[in-house]
Write a structure and sequence with these properties.
heterodimer, A: 214 residues, alpha+beta, three-stranded antiparallel sheet, 9 helices, B: 239 residues, mainly beta, 16-stranded parallel sheet, elongated, Protein CcmA, bactofilin family (chain B), DUF4004 (chain A)
Chain lengths: 214, 239
C-alpha cells in the first residue's frame, strides 16, 4: 500500500492556505504529527502529506472553523475518546444510530438492559450501525464486531486503528490494526469491509457537537 | 490539599498534592508533586513530575519528569527531564529540556537547549536556542546572541535579528559567521538577518545582512540586502 503523497508546497497552492495557517493548525493538533512525512530531496528536506487525508482534513477545517474555535476543532479531530456519557433515550432522540444497532449491541454484551453508554460504547454502536448499513455485514458478524471492538479498542489508546472484516469459505474474521499498517492475506481470503475507526470517531464527535447546538 | 511543603536550609520531602511548596536552600522532593504555588530559592530537585499553577525559581532546579503549569518564571539553571507544558513561560539563564516545549507565551533570555519541538503562540528569545526539532509559533522573534541551531522554523511572522550587544561584539571581532543555522524556514512574513538556511519560503521575505540561503521561494515580495548571499531566488504562485 504505497500512499499517494502531496508536497507541502503543492498543498498550499492547491488549498490556498498560508504557512501561518498550516503551522497554526499543526500546533493545535488539527493535523496529526505523523502526517508530516519528511523526505530528503535535492534541496535538503521536503515535507509531504498523505494526499487524500490531508485534503479532506483541510477542507473540513476550512468549513467548520467559522462555527467552532480551533480548540473545539482540535477536540473533534483528536483520536482520544471523550468521557461523555449518553443515555439510551438521548441517543434515540438525536438519531445518532438506529434502534436496531443499539438492540444488537445490547444483545452481544452481558447487560441486556443498559440505559447509559460511555463514549467508547457509543462509538462501538456507531461503527456497528455504519457497518450494518453498508449491507456487507450480517447480524451474527455484527455481534462478533462488538466483541472484538470491546476487547481490544482500549489497547490502541490514542492511536488510530482500523477494523477489517474478512471472510474465507464463508467464515467471518475480524482483525484490528493500527491505521496505516500493512496487512496481507492469503488468496482465499476476501476483504469485505475496512472500517477506519478514526473517521467514525470524528463523524460521531461532529454529530454530537452539532446536536448539542440545538 | 491544605498541606504545605517548606524546606529551609537542607531537607527533603516525599511530594504529593499540596498547596504551596517553598524551598529556601537545598531541597529534594522524592516523587511527583502537585501544588498551587512552587517557589524555589537555592537548589532543588524533583524526582518526578512537577505540576503547579505558578512556578518561581531563583537558583537551580532539576525536574526529572515533565513540568505542567500556568506560569513559570526562572532565573538561573533549569533542567527538565521530560517536557515543559506551561502557558506563560519566562526563562532567564540556562535552560535544558530533554523533550518538547509547549506554551502560549514563551520568552527566554539566555540559552535554551531542547531535543524536541518548541511550539507557542508568541515566541521570543534573546540569546541562543538549540534543538534538533522545530520552532513553531504564530509570531517568532529571535534576538541573536550566540549560536542558534534549529532544524525547522515555521509560523506566521518570523523575525530574526542580532541584538545590539551581539552587533557590537561582531563589530570589533568581524569574523564572518552565521548566528542562526536552520534547514528550512517557512512563514508568511519573514525578516531574516545573519541566518544560514537551506530553504526559505514565504509570502513577504526580507533577506538581511549576513544571510546565506540556498533556495528562496516567495510569492509576493522579496528584498535582499547587499550583504546577503542567496543561491537561487524564485517567485512562485500563490502561497
Amino acid at each position: 500500500m504505497t500512499e499517494d503523497l502531496i508536497s507541502k508546497k503543492e498543498l498550499l497552492e492547491q488549498t490556498g492556505i498560508s504557512y501561518g495557517q498550516l503551522y497554526r493548525w499543526k500546533r493545535k493538533n488539527l493535523i496529526p504529527e505523523d502526517w508530516f512525512i519528511r523526505k530528503s530531496s535535492f534541496t535538503g528536506q521536503e515535507t509531504f502529506f498523505p494526499r487524500e487525508s490531508i485534503l479532506t482534513r483541510i477542507d473540513r477545517i476550512k468549513n467548520m472553523k467559522d462555527e467552532l474555535s480551533l480548540d473545539e476543532l482540535a477536540d473533534v479531530f483528536s483520536p482520544s475518546v471523550s468521557n461523555k456519557v449518553l443515555t439510551r433515550v438521548e441517543i434515540e432522540r438525536k438519531h445518532l444510530v438506529t434502534p436496531i444497532s443499539i438492540h444488537l449491541f445490547l444483545e452481544s454484551g452481558s447487560e441486556k438492559e443498559k440505559q447509559t453508554f460511555s463514549f467508547e460504547e457509543m462509538l462501538c454502536i456507531y461503527v456497528l450501525d455504519q457497518a450494518l448499513a453498508s449491507g456487507q455485514m450480517n447480524r451474527e458478524e455484527g455481534i462478533l464486531l462488538v466483541q472484538t471492538f470491546q476487547a481490544y479498542y482500549s489497547k490502541f489508546q490514542d492511536k488510530g486503528c482500523d477494523i477489517i472484516l474478512t471472510r474465507k469459505m464463508g467464515i467471518p474474521l475480524f482483525t484490528m490494526l493500527t491505521t496505516g499498517s500493512e496487512v496481507y492475506f492469503d488468496t482465499g481470503v476476501k476483504e469485505v469491509l475496512r472500517l477506519s475507526l478514526n473517521t467514525y470517531l470524528e463523524q460521531l464527535k461532529v454529530k454530537l457537537s452539532e446536536s448539542e447546538g440545538f | 490539599m491544605d498541606k504545605d511543603i517548606k524546606i529551609t536550609g537542607n531537607g527533603s520531602s516525599g511530594g504529593g498534592i499540596v498547596r504551596n511548596v517553598k524551598i529556601v536552600g537545598e531541597g529534594v522532593i522524592h516523587s511527583d508533586v502537585e501544588s498551587q504555588y512552587f517557589k524555589c530559592t537555592g537548589t532543588a530537585a524533583v524526582n518526578g513530575h512537577l505540576r503547579s499553577n505558578q512556578i518561581k525559581l531563583t537558583g537551580s532546579l532539576h525536574v526529572q519528569g515533565d513540568v505542567y503549569g500556568d506560569s513559570i518564571k526562572t532565573s538561573g539553571q533549569f533542567e527538565v527531564g521530560g517536557k515543559l507544558e506551561v502557558r506563560h513561560v519566562k526563562l532567564n539563564g540556562d535552560t535544558v529540556v530533554k523533550r518538547s516545549i509547549h506554551s502560549e507565551h514563551f520568552k527566554a533570555f539566555g540559552s535554551v537547549r531542547l531535543h524536541g519541538d518548541c511550539s507557542a503562540e508568541q515566541l521570543r528569545i534573546k540569546g541562543a536556542i538549540q534543538t534538533e526539532g522545530m520552532l513553531n509559533a504564530e509570531h517568532i522573534d529571535i534576538g541573536l546572541y550566540g549560536l542558534c541551531k534549529v532544524a525547522e522554523i515555521g509560523g506566521h511572522k518570523i523575525e530574526i535579528k542580532r541584538t545590539l550587544m551581539s552587533s557590537l561584539f561582531h563589530m570589533f571581532n568581524p569574523k564572518r559567521q552565521s548566528d542562526l543555522i536552520a534547514d528550512t524556514i517557512e512563514g508568511d512574513v519573514l525578516h531574516l538577518e545573519h541566518t544560514e538556511a537551506k530553504v526559505v519560503r514565504g509570502r513577504k521575505v526580507y533577506i538581511g545582512p549576513g544571510c546565506r540561503i540556498g533556495l528562496v521561494e516567495y510569492s509576493e515580495s522579496c528584498k535582499k540586502h547587499s550583504d546577503a548571499v542567496t543561491e537561487v531566488c524564485n517567485q512562485i504562485g500563490s502561497l
